[in-house]
Design brief:
The structure is a homodimer. Chain A is of the alpha+beta class and about 675 residues long. Chain A contains 14 helices and 38 strands. In chain A, helix 5 runs parallel beside helix 7 and helix 12 packs parallel to helix 14.
Amino acid sequence: MSWLARLAALVLLALAPMVHAAEAAAVASPDGKIRVSIDVDGEGHVRYSVARGTAALITPSWLGFLFTDAPKLHRNLSVTGSEARSFDETWTQPWGERTQVRNHFNELRVHIKETKPLARGFDMVFRVFDDGVGFRYEFADQPNLHTLSIAEELTQFNLAQDGTAWWVPAFEWNREEYIYNTTPIREIATAQTPLTVKLADGTHIAFHEAALVDYAGMNIARVQGTALKAVLTPSARGPKVVRAAPFTTPWRTLQISPDAAGLAMSNLILNLNEPNKLGDVSWVHPRKYVGIWWGMHLDSQSWASGVKHGATTANAFKTIDFAAANGFKGVLIEGWNLGWDGDWFADGKDFSFTQAYPDFDLPKIAAYAKLKGVHLIGHHETSANIAHYEDQMDAAFDLYAKLGIDAIKTGYVSDAGGMQARGADGKTMFEWHEGQVSSVHHLKVVTEAAKRHISIDAHEPIKDTGLRRTYPNWVSREGARGMEYNAWGAPPNPPEHESVLVFTRMLGGPMDFTPGVLSLTGKHGQQIQSTEAKQLALYVVLYSPIQMAADLPENYVKYPRSFQFIKDVPTDWSDTRVLNGEVGDYVTIARKDRAGDNWYLGAVGDEQARTSTIKLDFLDPGRSYTAEIYRDGDGADWKTNPHAVAYETRKVTSADSLTLALAPGGGQAIRFVAGPRK
Amino acid sequence: MSWLARLAALVLLALAPMVHAAEAAAVASPDGKIRVSIDVDGEGHVRYSVARGTAALITPSWLGFLFTDAPKLHRNLSVTGSEARSFDETWTQPWGERTQVRNHFNELRVHIKETKPLARGFDMVFRVFDDGVGFRYEFADQPNLHTLSIAEELTQFNLAQDGTAWWVPAFEWNREEYIYNTTPIREIATAQTPLTVKLADGTHIAFHEAALVDYAGMNIARVQGTALKAVLTPSARGPKVVRAAPFTTPWRTLQISPDAAGLAMSNLILNLNEPNKLGDVSWVHPRKYVGIWWGMHLDSQSWASGVKHGATTANAFKTIDFAAANGFKGVLIEGWNLGWDGDWFADGKDFSFTQAYPDFDLPKIAAYAKLKGVHLIGHHETSANIAHYEDQMDAAFDLYAKLGIDAIKTGYVSDAGGMQARGADGKTMFEWHEGQVSSVHHLKVVTEAAKRHISIDAHEPIKDTGLRRTYPNWVSREGARGMEYNAWGAPPNPPEHESVLVFTRMLGGPMDFTPGVLSLTGKHGQQIQSTEAKQLALYVVLYSPIQMAADLPENYVKYPRSFQFIKDVPTDWSDTRVLNGEVGDYVTIARKDRAGDNWYLGAVGDEQARTSTIKLDFLDPGRSYTAEIYRDGDGADWKTNPHAVAYETRKVTSADSLTLALAPGGGQAIRFVAGPRK
């Protein structure tokens, strides 16, 4: 068949709904630009559509569910009513990219009921912001819906236009760590979220979810053409989700912006989460940290005991000394506890979360850290055996609390094929990292930790859906390819990696990427695809309230001038501005220190040399700043001359512009030191 | 990142395995052209690769399983040994496209064992034919593998080249009835099988499976690029498959041919199925049939009772008379049994499979049919409520057997979200049409029917994987968009539809498409996108041992000359030759009547006018034939002039060629009447 005939058929299909369905309800964003409308087609499918201005973004898309134990909820639906409301408040982040966050939306609640005998009902709630849309399903308890055993969520996302997509596959090896694909939208297969697309008309949309609580993580599969749909993460139990009514699903989110920068400026995910449930969280501390970690990835140290054991009392003392001497408030030490000597990667059942190796004197080290004004960051690698971990969790957290350890890095590396959970029958079930069982586990860890005033930084985690607003002790997590892939990844992270991350993974929330490897060298001498200046820029570009200086202490000594920026840069901000960016090409971000008047700027690019000019109008007007510039030097190139860094100082004001020249694989970092107020 | 850099990265990835893995075993096809090789990579993944000649088709692809209750079987594997054998036999089909089938392959059995403590083992068995490859997993009972609870099969199909794909989506609305997508391979999302691709070098590969017994149907998802993988059909139970060892999976099949015609000539699927287990099957009868069916799709009759009720004794008698008068041996009557008046589409729980409507005197009709030399074809629409159907199945089959009804059309239309099965706890479970529970159900129906010498023609079935070889009473099924979509489909089947079906769906086996609607008109006058001549060609092109003349009897009276071909054409063949074809464009097939010396030819095209010249060298050499030609007449076009048919008679021999001119939406049918032997 000819492509022309195919196109004609598609056009006919696209027109068909307009003929048959009348709009049942609609809602627009506060600025009037984004509009969501609801209709019911001839077969009783309730559908939503999204437009921005005159451009259709999402054509009529179905909603509904398959169940394992009941007829699907999909056709034969009617809209029985709807209500609208507006909401506008500004709330304060205890820590974050900005102090004040405005939460401003128009909401439409649509009441939906089956026209068939079961007469099941639910509400669809749409919140439309200037920067996108969130919607969710809400179920009241009712005679024919006490418990929902969800086989699949039938939410569609039918894109109205073709374009480019940045995505990583779902359901591959049970984690989130992949190099991003850059493809036409029509080449998306099944993707994890955030999934970011740039439509033909330039509109950017990032698909994700907010407030993933006691539910399966949503992935997005392409059906055909540019038609996408939700695919929930499976469970060994059968239903992907089991929930008793009343309950609400997580928010399905579309961050929408005319440019890439707008995506990274969006607060939509946080705004759709519930406010802080922990009360006073002054015990949660943004900070930088160093640790005994990179050596394991270089294979010069080991988690396991023996001659290369990294977590020794002597090494700990040295690392604490280094931290204290350079102003780092945190020290992470991995491999301190019993259990690393067997086949830990397989099932983690040998891990003790309270017993240290004999060469690691935990109480003594904790006391020494305290003496030096440094906080140990505890470490719990579970190998994804969550049943085993939960058995010891109370004792493990109590131990850390007793020793004054106020943050824990958890880990869920698994080679067994999933999270090992305990089923109702006591037997082991293998569950996905993004499944409902995992979502329950992670929140249990976070809330149990909160009781002891401990913060959590989860690696190989469930994805970030903004729950840090509700549980501010969930300070960071991994959930993408981080620095360790530069040590041993085949291939290592490409130069564009972080310019993709900002507009994909980072839309979910902070990432503990562990930047700052100034030596630019991985295992067996593998070259990191970055210039030295870019390593500095990452501290501003990749937001996390806890940031590691990941390199070995002895390497930092070799690069004292660059190291100064790492010592200077804060990790908590009163304001953030994304100055420019194109997904996978480059991005420039400026942030203001929450503890002072200084601004910081980071710019990273990709494998090409890139130049951009930015206005400094984010600076306080009329004030003078000393810009301490760390830029790629002459001839810098990640491949041939990565350590060429130029250091400059310049006086600037908000009326100035700056031209940033990034080398291939390069970046630039700037500290704007505020002069006295006029 | 630039496309060039991306390409370079991919090339590096593709080269990596060659560096690290040594071939552990290999096997070639009897003609030496197709070669499968096995290796183990550095992490202990066992991989297979497929090449044809010097062209790589499948690059190293992983094998393995995820389980819901045990660690995955994927990494840390070793090849502990292998054995090869050759096999060559010719077996006889009781009915089919050809009488004799040669089953000629070289087999490689690879013994694989985990190097980790569980030490689980399995065999991979590869059978390499001149027309493709089949492979399966075989599990012996063993201490750490008594029962397999399979969460996913990790079989990959990494295509070495880009190209074009013809596919329908999986997991959409729980059936198989879609218009085919024609896309680049990189635009496959998740597809049902058969999935057919044409690689850049012209090689055609159809991915499917053979002998789907007590296992979940396999779908094929694209991971990224041209990397594909198996995705099993889910189950409400949790594991997609539960099997006690010893057991073998279905065969994963790759039919491989330098041209499209070769795919449609392949016997690989049948050859990988086990021989006939039913013994004497002389009670299975290929035949043509008419029925009370098309009127329901036109909405001039109804399944439900009332004034439009189609299944009345009077209508049955008329239809039997029409069949007898025109030489049709079968009569199908739908809507005869109680249960059609409620919301049968929802759950089918009101269906009786033994009680007729009062206006349908089943015993009297059966007796009248017998008197007229006609066989009733029974009808069991289940609405996919398989628990309800199985409860009545014995009684229903006994009733039909008693009345001499030797074939049943079953139906599994469902609007409930799945096959309604009964779980171990007695509660309803919603299962997929292609899942393990469905595979068990269908085989139960077929084997129970066989006990009564009844044949089965399943609609909305599980896919065909060649089980007709083992159970020859499984005569046909639907499993794709059939004629009824031309009645009410929006849109109806496009002109290319059947030229796609031959190289996709039909590779699985016979399809009860129900051709022959000479009126070319659906519900409310919807035009069928076919010429009249094409309707005749479908009887040869779309193989099924039972073929319906689907139009209303009163319509056949209007087209007596074309109707003659439908009366003449047989449905059982001693030989089949696919003379030419391009997927989705056109195909020409010649078949020889199993009951005589005549040959029949069918050619169908797409929306374009097409001309091809074919050699008649399939005819017996030196023998004279009278070719009765039914071709698109001058100016024929499905849109503007569909009833223009030209009828010609010509004397031909095997030395002749014929030029076939197909109109847009057209086709051609020829009956070659053999003259006396020399």
